[in-house]
Amino acid sequence: MNQHELIEKANQEVERNREMVESDPYRLRFHLMPPVGLLNDPNGFIQFKGVYHLFYQWNPFETAHGAKFWGHYTSKDFINWEHQPIALAPSEWYEKNGCYSGSAIENDGKMVLFYTGNVKDENGDRETYQCMAVSQDGITFEKKGPVIYLPEGYTAHFRDPKVWKKEDTWYMVLGAQDVDEQGKVVLYSSTDLMNWNLLGPLTGSAMNQLGPFGYMWECPDLFELDGKDVLLVSPQGLEPEGDVYHNLFQAGYFVGELDYQKASYQHGSFTELDRGFDFYAPQTTVDEKGRRLLFAWMGITDDNEKYQPTIEKGWIHAMTLPRVLTRKGEKIVQQPVEELQLLRKNEVSYNEVQIITSNVTLEGIKGEALELLFDEIIYEGDSFEINFRGGARFEYSSKLGKMRLQRKNFKDGSIESRHCKIDAVKKLHVFIDTSSIEIFVNDGEEVFTARYYPDVADQTITFSALGRVQFDLKKWDLG
Ligand code: FRU
User: Fold this and answer.
1) Quick one: average pLDDT of 81-104?
2) Spatial separation of the C-alpha atoms in residues 202 and 405, rounded to whole Å
3) Is the pLDDT of residue 293 over 90?
4) How far is the CA of 461 from the centre of ligand 1 (A)?
């Protein structure tokens, strides 16, 4: 099928399923979702001529992975989003099994996309092409075809170009697997966006001080943050270790220094960006205000993906809230963008609430789409727990110096947990949507992101403490 026919078919799929998808009580109120089918990575995140563009990996025809399209949303304010026409459909020989992840830049007033053309040949063997597409208006794209072919030394797991400019040169990082099946991040440079020179691997498994560190690294993003070079990357193949790496795949960062001349990157250790269940393939951009902004896929590919309850209604997965990144020493801090405050309605405010027993509710603190801000938290006892709509439970144990998020496993309903160490929880900023939760701890020092599926009618938020806990609390309904 040609591009026009594929897009037509996808649009029909949206129309045919609209009523069913929209009838789902788990449709989110203030997060981006696919209109039908499966959404995964954020792609091409950019502010272009004042407007924020967020593209996304999209399979319109199934709630499973497949030949991906680039869906497209735009917004001026991160509150009101418009769904735009499909940007890329997998119609050409070099992308026939998917227009995979990539990024956007602005050059000479045009928007230029770089993405991976994924191809599977008759024997099921993979081929990969790094492709370019150009747009005058940021809405319709002209494909220019492959600009990078697979170099020697790597398998066809070579994808997800992220491009940026430093002085007069363009740079691109790619996620890769080398022939020894070690995950790597590879650097290219170009002066004209068409001809690219391979500068070499920057870091990866069995490189620098890392030792074995995964068989494939996906979706790299490299940028300067307050004088340091930060690499975000999603490695595959890390084993759980104590509190960390409990999701099937990880998403995290390194802080270091990139020597562009020598194409070498010196960095510290890998830190996960999120402590919850659903956070992968984050991508950033810098906006006109100079903010380093991030979206991530609020989902992950694992064995339980197929048990997500929204599949019954023809859709699956969503984006996280947009966040601002800053750096505190070696730590990357995430905060929800301030524009989200425009969603606030019906403020309820409490000073010096004291909790000393179990299952306490507070007048006016309930709902299915709301924001909670806990401040000035003081503990005299051992632990403090918040139960969200009977579907997710956040607990801080001052005794153990640990936080924990629990939810029901999508497959069998058993309770599953993610943990993270913390010295003291002083502040909690929580965004609860119909089927998602994002908890920013101590102004974004740590974040827990997860989907969860409570009983639809349950709007209760309850508090429990072992010993006395005191806090100030504000609540807003959102949406
Ligand atoms: C990450 C990823 C990318 C790839 C895309 C395909 O989730 O596997 O590496 O480009 O998804 O949809």
Assistant:
1) 98
2) 35
3) yes
4) 36
Whole-number Å distance between alpha carbons of 402 and 382: 11
Q: How far, in Å, CA of 64 to CA of 311, rounded? A: 9
Q: Tell me the CA–centroid distance for residue 174 and ligand 1, in Å.
A: 12
Burial of 105 (C-beta count, 10 Å sphere; 0-12/13-18/19+) = buried
Q: In what order do the strands lie in the sheet with 292-297?
A: 280-286, 292-297, 323-328, 331-336
- List the structure tokens of 103: 């990024």
Q: Tell me the per-residue pLDDT of 189-244, one tens digit each, with 9 for 90 and over.
A: 999 999 999 999 999 999 999 999 999 999 999 999 999 999 999 999 999 999 99
**How does pLDDT run across 309-337, given as a tens digit for each residue?**
999 999 999 999 999 999 999 999 999 99
Residue nearest to atom 8 of ligand 1 (CA): 218
Q: What is the DSSP string of 109-163?
A: TEEEEEEEEEEE-TTS-EEEEEEEEEESSSSS-EEEEEEEEPPTTEEEEEEEEEE
Partners of 135 in the β-ladder: 111
Q: How far apart are CA 54 and CA 237, in angstroms?
A: 28
Name residue 100's amino acid. Answer: Y
3-state secondary structure of 85: coil
Q: Which atom of ligand 1 is nearest to the CA of 116?
A: 10
Side-chain half-sphere CA neighbours of 126 within 13 A: 16
Q: Which band of pLDDT confidence, cut at 50, 70 and 90, is reported for residue 28? A: very high
Residue 85 confidence (pLDDT): 98
pLDDT of 338: 98
Q: What is the pTM of this model?
A: 0.97
Q: Are 340 and 78 contacting, i.e. CB atoms less than 8 angstroms apart? A: yes
Ligand 1 environment, Cβ below 6 A:
40-41, 57, 68, 100-101, 116, 159-160, 218-219, 280-281
Exposed / middle / buried, residue 336 (Cβ in 10 Å: 0-12, 13-18, 19+)? buried
- The radius of gyration of the chain's CA atoms, rounded to the nearest angstrom, is 22
In tens, the pLDDT along 209-223 reads 999 999 999 999 999
Other Cβ atoms closer than 10 A to 193? 19
Structure tokens at 345: 């309605």
Quote the ligand 1 centre to 281 CA distance (angstroms).
8
What pLDDT, on the 0 to 100 scale, is given for residue 479?
A: 82
Residue 422's pLDDT is 96
